[in-house]
Amino acid sequence: MGDLEVKRLARGDEAVAAVLFAMMAAVFDEGSAPLSEEYVRKLLGTDSFWAMAAFDGADVVGGLTAHTLPMTRSPSSEVFIYDLAVREDHQRQGVATRLVDELRTGAARIGIYDVFVPADNEDAGALEFYRAQGADAVPVTFFTFTR
């Protein structure tokens, strides 16, 4: 692997974001609906949305999406990592670690020090990864409402 570059995507990066989101869906083996350029532009123009892409040269090899959540118990925010994915041919090479580090650094620059992420209890790899990053596991049950 060449030099890894990590970048937070912003308006103007719609084409890269489309590649990133498609790569993430492929890693998770999930179907995905095509996103309009307008929708992606809106996402990338929202300060509370984080789309981080990892590049090996010009290739997108990993990425994460996260959301800044304003708190109501204090005048502060936390960042919620929603998705983190690395292409199979680049896994276990430090890509995910760099993505999380860059997100945490970027959040700290704007005064946000609390970052959290859910991981399925059955996903041993994710649990091992987040523990290796120094994260504390907190037992919680997520409930999902669907139509």
TrEMBL record:
This is AAC(3)-I family aminoglycoside 3-N-acetyltransferase. The keyword Transferase applies. InterPro entries: Acyl_CoA_acyltransferase, GNAT_dom. Gene3D superfamilies: 3.40.630.30. Residues 4-147 form the N-acetyltransferase domain. Keywords: Transferase. Signal peptide: none annotated. GO terms for molecular function: acyltransferase activity, transferring groups other than amino-acyl groups.
